[in-house]
Amino acid sequence: MEVEILSAQTSKSVGVLNSLAPTTSVRELKKRVHGLKKSLHPDRQALRLELKGRTLKEDESLKSLGLKSGSKLYVKDLGPQIGWKTVFLVEYAGPLLLYLCMYRRPWLFYGEGASSVPIHHAVHIAAGCWTLHYAKRLLETLFVHRFSHATMPIFNLFKNCSYYWLFTLYIAYHINHPLFTAPGSIQVYGSLTAFLLCELGNLSIHIALRNLRPPGTTVRKMPVATLNPFTSLFNLVSCPNYTYEFGSWLAFSVMTQCLPAGLFALAGMYQMTIWALGKHRAYKKEFLSYPRSRKAIVPFLL
Amino acid sequence: MALSPGVKRQRLKADHSPPTSAEVKKVWIYKSTPPYAFMASPTILHAATKLVPSNVLITVFQVFSRVLVVCGVLLATPTGPTSPGLPLALVAWSITEVVRYLYYALNLLGTVPYLLVWCRYTLFIALYPIGVTGELLCLYAAQAYVAQKKLWSLEMPNALNLTFSYHYFLLFIMFLYIPLFPQMYLHMFAQRRKVITDGTSKKVK
Q1: pLDDT digits over B16-25, tens only?
Q2: Closest-CA residue of chain B to A256
Q3: Residue B20: inside a domain, yes or no?
Q4: Which residues of B sit within 8 Å Cβ distance of A?
Q5: What is the pLDDT of residues A167-206, one digit of tens each?
Q6: Which residues cross the membrane (chain B) (predicted)?
Q7: Tell me, what's the pLDDT at B1?
């Protein structure tokens, strides 16, 4: 079979692929297109049947798409890509290092002598929680998460790092400030407990999601509660990992009674809600027996 | 006794002499520019609902910067209005807005004379940099006063463990002009290229 490849940007022909078997997958087509144009690495390509159509999945084939000889396919250049693992490691390492720098009260931000002002125990606990959270994220990136796409646009690196790193500096500046006022012990230890439970919850969900997907595949299975009691939140929401994540940051904000931390919790919640609503919609479309009572991110409400 | 305009006269009781230009300026700033600046905010809604063909994000930046300059700089500080940036900004804004809203109104009626289209998509080339220069000069004149008086700022310790430095905020806004102005200026040029080609104008959808 023969298929012509057209550029989605210019609608001009990039070239013609011949000697294609009907069983040729999209993944293999991308490698052949890369052969036509060196700059189009497979990860940069989004193949489509129509100019503004949906992106074809890697495991679809010419046969499954109903394509015959002489058909045309559009290729969109997604721009320079970067490995998602790389992005995650860089964007999470920043908060870990920057917070611990501010924890030592550098003179650059607080003036001379700030580091000798006594530190309330709540500030130590906050530093511990922050470190735990980002160390957990780094370890999950290395050992737990499995993704559908290997890469993301390189612009995301700058966008994501700015978000995490600048917010880290903003929050860390206030909590480690010599004039920081800690709330009472009940508030501190109560929220610390809530924080730790939410961290465990979030980790449980990540592991449960990983186990849904066999290694090396991009299989999609409906998520359900497992033997781990933390996963029972799946009975109420589609994305309990986001629910627990917001819970952690809410607990952290109450523990430190710090508005900048609260703003970070809200910003994260806003973004995660958008993602959760999208995932919830996708699950409902994909799995016909999806439980009607499940919400996206907030039990019973949203 | 004839004095040159703008010279502050001795005010006597029951003096009905006409106000000095400094006083006129002050009245104008306090009474008319705030409502004018706030009246620009529905512009965002018009763009969002596509009542007028404008980009929402760009309109948000324009309205926000204007409200900030009028309320946060001109009304809030005594140094802001004394800046030479004030007349620059006011002239640029005034001409731009008259042209723009006349264009929108006639666009809704379906009859926009080419001269008006030309004005809308050409005058900005000079007015935009002039307006931005005016705004930046006003911001610069205000930030020193804000730093000294710690205007609208919050320090620690406080119950929410929060700080806010209006001085740094103004400096940050001034800094934002560096990446944003070229983008918005080039966006206008791109719009111009779409609408005005070889002395004729294409229909704007």
Answers
A1: 667 666 666 6
A2: B161
A3: no
A4: 155-163
A5: 999 999 999 999 999 999 999 999 999 999 999 999 999 9
A6: 56-78, 98-118, 125-146, 166-186
A7: 45
Domain span at residue B70 reads 56-198
Cβ–Cβ of B162/A260 closer than 8 Å?
yes
Q: Which residues are CB-neighbours of A239 under 8 A, at least 6 positions away?
A: A272, A275, A276, A279, A280, A296, A297
User: In angstroms, what separates the C-alpha of B123 from chain A's closest C-alpha?
Assistant: 32
Q: State yes or no: is B128 an active-site residue.
A: yes
pTM: 0.77
Q: Which residues of B touch A258 (CB under 8 A)?
A: 160-162
Domain membership of residue B99 (yes or no) is yes
Task: Select from A179, A259, A260 the Cβ nearest to the Cβ of B157.
Answer: A179
Mean pLDDT: which of A34-38, A79-83, A243-247 is highest?
A: A243-247
Q: Is residue B71 part of a domain?
A: yes
CA-nearest residue to B163 within chain A is: A174
Q: What residues contact residue B108 under an 8 Å CB cut-off, 6+ apart?
A: none
The whole-number pLDDT of residue B205 equals 43
The rounded distance, in Å, linking the Cα atoms of A51 and A59 is: 20
Q: Do B162 and A177 touch (CB under 8 A)?
A: no
User: How do residues B51-72 score in pLDDT, each as one tens digit?
Assistant: 666 677 777 887 888 888 888 8
| Sequence-distant contacts of B121-130: CB under 8 A, at least 24 apart | B121/B188, B121/B191, B121/B192, B121/B195, B121/B196, B122/B192, B122/B196, B123/B95, B123/B96, B123/B99, B124/B96, B124/B188, B125/B188, B127/B92, B127/B95, B127/B96, B128/B92, B128/B184, B128/B185, B128/B188, B129/B185, B130/B88, B130/B91, B130/B92
Q: Above 60 in pLDDT, residue B12?
A: no
Q: Is residue B189 part of a domain?
A: yes
CB contact under 8 A, A174 and B157: no
Q: Distance (Å, rounded) from C-alpha A7 to C-alpha A25?
A: 19
List the single residue in A with minimal CA-CA distance to B155: A179
pLDDT digits (tens, 9 = 90+) for B74-111: 888 888 888 899 999 999 999 999 998 899 899 888 88
